Amino acid sequence: MKVSVSTITISELDVDLLFIPISKEVIEGGLEDLAEAFGPCVEKARGDIRGDGSNATVLYPEKGTAKRIVLVGLGESGKISFEKLRLAAAKGATVAYDVKAETVGIAIPSLDLDGDDTAQALVEGFVLGSYRFTKYRTNAQPGESAQRLVIQTTDQDKQVRRGADRGRIIAEAVCTARDLVNVSPDEKTPVLLSKAIEKTGKKSGFEVSVWDKALIEEEGMGGLLAVNRGSIEPPTFSVLEWRPENARNSRPIILVGKGVTFDTGGLSLKPTKGSMDSMKCDMAGAAAVVGAMEAIAKLEMPLYVIGLIPATDNRPGENAYVPGDVVKMHSGKTVEVLNTDAEGRMILADALSYASSFYPEQVIELSTLTGAAVVALGDFVAAIMTNAEEGSEERLSEMVAAGSESGDRVHPLPMFDEYNEQLKSTVADLKNVGGREGGAITAAKFLEHFVDYPWIHVDIAGPAFWDSGKGYSQAGGTGFGVRLVTRYLQQISEKKR
Predict the structure, then answer these.
(1) Among candidates 32, 158, 31, 171, which has minimal Cα distance to 93?
(2) How far apart are the C-alpha atoms of 341 and 343, rounded to whole Å?
(3) Are 235 and 312 within 8 A, CB to CB?
(4) How far is residue 86's CA from residue 88's CA, in Å, rounded to a whole number?
(5) Distance of CA 125 to CAs 18, 122, 175, 307, 345, Å?
């Protein structure tokens, strides 16, 4: 979608649809300015406009050049957040899609918020709300997404342009992650996923190298190889790198994403309904890393960042790993497998161990790891945990802030040492499951055994994939994590100035 900024008046903006977000105070004040610009239809519709943003009112103006206008309430001006702006813009995107508007304008509301952040939120909400995954549709859809978006402003022109461009880049990166998750499993085997990552790297400007099975064996990634034993498809290990000349860090920040391209549970087979039927999303952590790397590169963020993506499917093939197997991991530690459906932590442990070779400043790992995280927090918040390295409280608070600002909300869970008791094995260094109680935490505690640097674990099992649409996300992959990581890294970049 092409996004531009214009300073002409809203009455002169020639678009198929003009979206105007307005505060509760403006609605109650009579809408005189809008009525003057667009005619009596505005005042006549005042009773239909809800100040809480729960509806979108479509009008056909008697004056001005816009073919349609859409009014959406934002609530009280003092309580308007960037998330409310995103959600409001998504309502405008839905109307634009339904009426097949090719050109859409959004009027920047007068608020006590920075112009660049306001523009970013509105563009993000509109682009994300416009997303439709139609790759496999053989019949025409009832609407189509807009081709051009114009942000109308009367002041803060440079700030608005900067924010609009940033919003477009980040939203498009989220859509990249959504596409990767939504693709049919037979079109994203580990090898095909690695090719998609290479394509995104070439388009966005970051480097990608892909290891084949022989290199993975040479590196001794026993966890990744064990999970892959039941598959006819070989595993891959992708290394993504963004290293600008003006990087403000000499030691990299590393992003690790779980890349299980389809998870049957292995021999610990999942039930189909409500479980295996959505397991094409089990590589949503990998998709989030790819999307974040796209955003980082296109924003030309002055940070040295590496992405690591171990990829395999988990199937009950003839040579599948079994409960009772003891696996030697990349780090040299041994793991007793008691549930083959706890495969994500097996491949992530190898990637986290390998990350040590870069002496990272910190590592952020994203994974659809546990159903227990969904039970604890629902499907709109991700669980975050960190190890007790120096600065752990600061990392958590900054990640929570990044989640609040970006819309990818997160909440911390504890990492007390007592949870390690549940991971003790009678035959190996560790077992790969810790029992039902505190399952999200014991999964993180398992991974903690393979890190020796500051590390943040983000369990995105809940918000990564939705069965029905909400807000600015349709059913399917949400792209959760892209905006979270991008905002978190922006915070780090700003601190390093």
Answers:
(1) 171
(2) 5
(3) yes
(4) 5
(5) 15, 5, 12, 26, 33
Model confidence at 60: pLDDT above 70:
yes
Residue 370 tokens read as 């546990």
Does 429 lie in the same domain as 363?
A: yes
pLDDT in tens, 129-145: 999 999 998 885 656 77
Please check whether residue 463 lies inside any domain of the structure. Answer: yes
pTM, entire model: 0.96
Output the domain CATH number for residue 112.
Answer: 3.40.220.10
Tell whether 349 and 419 lie within a shared domain. Answer: yes
Q: Summarize pLDDT for 389-419 with one digit per residue, the tens.
A: 889 999 999 999 999 999 999 999 999 999 9
180 and 147, same structural domain?
A: no
| Residues 481 and 424 reside in one and the same domain | yes
How far, CA to CA in Å, does 326 sit from each of 35, 96, 411, 429, 435?
73, 56, 34, 10, 18
Q: Which two tokens stand for residue 126?
A: 């509109």
Structure tokens at 425: 């094995």
Do residues 491 and 396 make contact, with C-beta atoms less than 8 angstroms apart? no
Cα 462 from Cα 397, distance rounded (Å): 21
345 among known catalytic residues: yes
State phi, psi for 111 to the nearest 5 degrees. -135, 160
Catalytic residue among 248, 270, 333, 470: 270
* Catalytic one of 168, 258, 298, 345: 345
Return d(Cα 159, Cα 215) in angstroms, integer. 47
Sequential DSSP letters for 252-266: PEEEEE-EEEEE--T
**What pLDDT is stored for residue 44 in this prediction?**
86
Q: Tell me whether residue 270 is one of the annotated catalytic residues.
A: yes
The range of the structural domain enclosing residue 249 comes to 175-495
The reply to whether 216 and 251 lie within a common domain is yes
Domain count, the chain: 2
Query: Per-residue DSSP letters for 103-119?
Result: EEEEEPP--SS-HHHHH
Are residue 398 and residue 279 in the same domain, yes or no?
A: yes
As beta bridge partners, residue 473 has 470
Per the domain annotation, does 448 fall within a domain?
A: yes
Helices 482-495, 284-298: inter-axial angle, 10-degree rounding: 40
Q: Do 249 and 380 share a domain, yes or no?
A: yes
For residue 168, tell me if it sits in a domain. Answer: no
Residue 143 included in any domain: yes
Q: What are 280-319's pLDDT values in tens digits?
A: 999 999 999 999 999 999 999 999 999 999 999 999 999 9
Cβ-based neighbours of 401, under 8 Å, separated by 6 or more? 491
* CA 480/CA 178 separation, integer angstroms: 9
| Count of CB atoms situated within 10 Å of the CB of 148 | 15
Residues 68 and 24 both lie in one domain:
yes
Domain-ending residue, one of 137, 152, 167:
152
